[in-house]
Amino acid sequence: MKAAFLPRKGLVLAVLAAVALSACSAEKAFDNTVDATLWTGKTAVRAGAGVVKLGAKGAGAVARAATDAE
Fold first, then answer.
1. Measured distance CA(42)–CA(44) in Å, rounded
2. Torsional sign, CA 51, 57, 61, 67
3. What is the SS3 assignment for 70?
4. pTM of the prediction?
């Protein structure tokens, strides 16, 4: 009777290990997705800030050039 019970324990252990690994992988995939989304958002904000700074510098240069030309 013990010999018949041993494979079931092994099977249950294998299934539990597979479920635990699956949950861990899903959590890691979710974390990676969140990290990628946050990185993309931060990059977009930084690019937008860079464009605004560049526009301000360009507008200042145009204003100085117009003032110096007069």
1. 5
2. positive
3. coil
4. 0.47
Q: Which two three-digit tokens encode residue 15? A: 């299934």
CA 1/CA 10 separation, integer angstroms: 15
Residue range 27-53, pLDDT digits in tens: 777 888 888 888 888 888 888 888 889
Please report, for residues 7, 25, 32, 67, the alpha-carbon distance to residue 21 in angstroms, rounded to integers and kept in the order given.
Answer: 21, 6, 16, 68
Name residue, tokens 């019970």.
5
- Amino acid identity, residue 59? A
